[in-house]
């Protein structure tokens, strides 16, 4: 039964929020802006309301399934596995030909349930870096670096901390195009 719940976490993560929000406005988000199927691209292309809605749903796609697994699974490793499944679903959604977002918002939701202190530290770093640079990818990469570091300090080498490191690595890999643009000084920023 636990495997079924984890598969459902993948499906919940796979819900293509950004794509559907774009479609509701007559836009294929994969073909405009950065082409990324995530909240930042929706925010830039469709505005604040659509971006905040997309961000909220993407966070909940990680948070709610993990909370359900923590309460009902009875298997110690299941919530951590569910978190990874939700992030993988978001990043590689079968509903849009295995494309998806970079996994930052869904990771934030999933790890808020699993590792609240580490996630809050990562969120603080994200906010500080974003407010300093006005570049979302800089904040995301900083948060991805801090999450596993704090998780290992607070929780030791727990399954959740180890999987936080794996998910953070995935986030960094998904940001390789952003890193290249940062190095060339071409990454887009939000104006103050």
The largest sheet is: none
Beta fraction of the residues?
A: under 5%
Helix content class:
over 70%
Shape: globular
Tally the helices: what do you get? 10
**SS-derived structural category:** mainly alpha
CA gyration radius, whole angstroms: 16 Å
Q: N-to-C terminal Cα separation, in Å?
A: 49 Å
> Low-confidence spans: pLDDT under 50, at least 5 residues?
none
Count of spatially separate domains: 1
Tally of strands: 0
Mean pLDDT: 94
Order of helices and strands: HHHHHHHHHH
Question: Briefly, what is this?
Answer:
With 192 residues, the protein is mainly α. The protein has helices at 2-14, 17-24, 39-46, 48-72, 78-91, 104-114, 116-133, 136-155, 159-174, 176-184.
Question: What order do the helices and strands come in, and which of them pair?
Answer:
Layout: H1 2-14, H2 17-24, H3 39-46, H4 48-72, H5 78-91, H6 104-114, H7 116-133, H8 136-155, H9 159-174, H10 176-184
Helix pairs in contact: 1-4, 1-5, 2-3, 2-4, 3-4, 4-5, 4-6, 5-6, 5-9, 6-7, 6-9, 7-8, 8-9
